[in-house]
Specification:
Blueprint lengths: L2 H10 L12 H9 L7 H28 L4 H13 L1 H16 L11 H13 L3 H21 L3 E3 L2 E3 L1 H6 L6 H39 L5 H8 L7 H30 L29 H15 L1 H12 L3 E4 L9 E5 L4 E8 L3 H23 L10 H4 L1 H9 L10 H34 L7 H15 L10 H4 L6 H5 L5 H17 L3 H14 L5 H8 L7 H16 L1
Parallel strand pairs: 3-5
Antiparallel strand pairs: 1-2, 4-5
Length: about 575
């Protein structure tokens, strides 16, 4: 094990008692037993926040460690012990503490706590005792998805690869290499598809029951309240789906058509389309700016130093503190994310890098999340005021993808940088149809589909939507059952209804970049200021602080697509 992995393992260790409710119970009971008057609330909230941070950090470290060791039964068991033994009493106690707070006579929350006081009130109204144990079941079902996909292997020409390693071959200019890799990935996906079908049916049943227990008509309505979506409606989302079909899909079709013509392809086949990195129209090898995770860290450190000295220092803290695990390896969950350890205000980034330019972009993205954790944690003492509403939370990450664009001269030469920049702009265009499709699928699944919906209906709906949002991909001659499994994606299992936020924030990030091209220093100042507001401000206010509007309507999308088209042709 490398020194870096040693640091990661040390960072993720928690005491043996951290998975036991008894470790936390006496202090929570002391909070419940405290006589509480309005004047006492701020000090009491500070105590509660510190205890929630301690419990939340244990949960985060145990969960992350489980994701790094999907093939280790002891590690998985320890996390499941926490989920089953700590989370139910913690949920009940949190409800009791919330009710105690809400019952304090004459208490008026301070301005920086007013929004979260309202969120506490709304969450308390949604709480049901019947859902406490059911949420444990829900998390266990989600963990089954992590274990299945984390242990998934791909066999390509007799070589066993991880999913990220196999996906790297999709960037090859050699069409035969791409096609072979795509089929190998497809064989692997179809092998686990029946297991994932079973997990999904269990999740749907559980989610429907969560909604019924909370007296909600369907799981979408339940989730809407759970996610505190107060600034837009399902109808706004449907209008977004329509706007993407009308304003973005034609541009994406044009982009892919141009690439096909320049490469002499009759059509874009599935192995020709990687939305994270479209094919180079000149047929050049994919950019490979680094080989190892250590090299990637060094490249990123220099880029952040070019953007801002404090950002570079924060990234350096992550490098030295065991807060980065970047390499792809067997037994590690294949997704990328930023976790957060609140006690010492430390973000943690997990990735699966294989040396691509897209890996560089993803690192900037995930470390943008880390900066959000750092700055909101610095400015907001109460743990509930850190980070932000989810409609803003992807802006720090996506904006960082763009703010680093002018600081990569040490990574790419001028021609390569132009390719990287073009790929990033193209990525916005082809991502929006995917985001709209993911969101539309979930609106149908949880608000329109029959109660006893089956896998065949899920597959059929996904096919219908994929034809509408991705008409530029030619699936002729391929078993439709393969295309139909596109819904078997991380967020569908692990983060229901969390996807349209990526689209909202991508649109905002493009707006921030547009402003930064005129005033880089001002854009960065506004970026940091918005991050410091954390969860103490509402969504429209956070967007304004960052220098953009909270909009995702057709007119706004049309304007941004026009800007992107100009940039792509300039």
């Amino acid at each position: 094990m490398t020194a870096q992995l040693d640091r990661v393992e040390n960072k993720l260790q928690v005491s043996g008692d951290a998975a036991l409710w008894e470790t936390y119970r006496p202090r929570y009971e002391a909070l419940l037993d405290t006589e509480l008057k309005a004047a006492d609330v701020p000090t009491w909230l500070t105590r509660w926040s510190a205890l929630d941070a301690e419990l939340g950090e244990a949960a985060a470290k145990l969960s992350t460690h489980a994701d790094l060791h999907t093939d280790d039964e002891a590690v998985q068991g320890r996390y499941q012990t926490f989920v089953a033994g700590v989370m139910p009493p913690a949920s009940r106690t949190g409800q009791a503490l919330t009710e105690k707070l809400l019952a304090v006579p004459d208490y008026v929350p301070a301005p920086d706590f007013a929004l979260n006081y309202r969120r506490f009130r709304d969450a308390a109204a949604l709480f049901r005792e019947a859902n406490v144990e059911l949420e444990v079941t829900h998390q266990q079902q989600q963990n089954r998805h992590s274990v299945i996909t984390g242990n998934q292997k791909v066999t390509l020409h007799g070589e066993q690869l991880t999913i990220p390693q196999a996906k790297q071959r999709l960037d090859s200019p050699d069409r035969k290499v791409r096609e072979d890799a795509w089929w190998a990935l497809t064989v692997s996906d179809m092998e686990v598809a029946p297991e994932l079908d079973a997990v999904m049916l269990d999740l749907i049943h559980t989610r429907q029951q969560l909604a019924r227990n909370a007296d909600e008509t369907n799981y979408r309505d339940f989730r809407w309240k759970q996610l505190d979506r107060v600034d837009y409606t399902p109808a706004d989302c449907r209008a977004f789906h329509d706007a993407v079909r009308e304003e973005v899909v034609p541009l994406a079709t044009e982009l892919l058509g141009d690439i096909a013509r320049e490469l002499g392809l009759e059509s874009i086949r599935p192995w020709d389309f990687n939305r994270s990195n479209l094919l180079d129209p000149s047929g050049r090898e994919a950019l490979k700016p680094f080989t190892t995770g250590a090299e990637l860290q060094t490249l990123a450190q220099t880029a952040f130093a070019g953007v801002d000295a404090d950002l570079a220092a924060r990234f350096g803290q992550m490098r030295e503190g065991g807060l980065l695990d970047l390499e792809s390896r067997p037994g590690k969950m294949t997704h990328a994310y930023c976790q957060y350890f609140p006690v010492n205000n430390e973000p943690f980034v997990l990735m699966n890098v294989v040396g691509t330019a897209h890996d560089l972009q993803v690192l900037f993205h995930e470390v943008g999340h880390a900066f959000h954790g750092f700055y909101s944690g610095d400015a907001q003492p109460l743990v509930w005021n850190r980070w932000s509403p989810i409609e803003f939370v992807e802006i720090p990450s996506m904006a960082m993808e763009f703010l680093t664009l002018d600081h990569l001269g040490h990574v790419f030469d001028a021609e390569e940088l132009a390719r990287y920049r073009r790929s990033q702009l193209q990525g916005v265009v082809v991502f929006l149809p995917w985001a709209a499709q993911m969101d539309a699928f979930q609106h149908w699944l949880y608000a329109e589909a029959p109660e006893n919906v089956g896998i065949a209906e899920l597959d059929a709906k996904w096919l219908e939507l994929d034809r509408a949002f991705h008409p530029f991909v030619d699936w002729d001659g391929i078993d439709e059952g393969v295309r139909a499994k596109g819904w078997q994606y991380y967020h569908i299992f692990q983060a229901p209804f969390y996807y349209i936020e990526y689209a909202m924030c991508y649109l905002a990030a493009v707006g921030i970049w547009r402003e930064a091209r005129e005033d880089a220093a001002g854009a960065l100042t506004r970026y940091k200021a918005a991050l410091r507001l954390g969860n103490a401000a509402g969504v429209p206010e956070l967007y304004r602080a960052a220098g953009v509007e909270f909009r995702f309507d057709r007119e706004y999308i049309k304007g941004l697509m026009g800007f992107l088209k100009e940039q792509l042709t300039s």
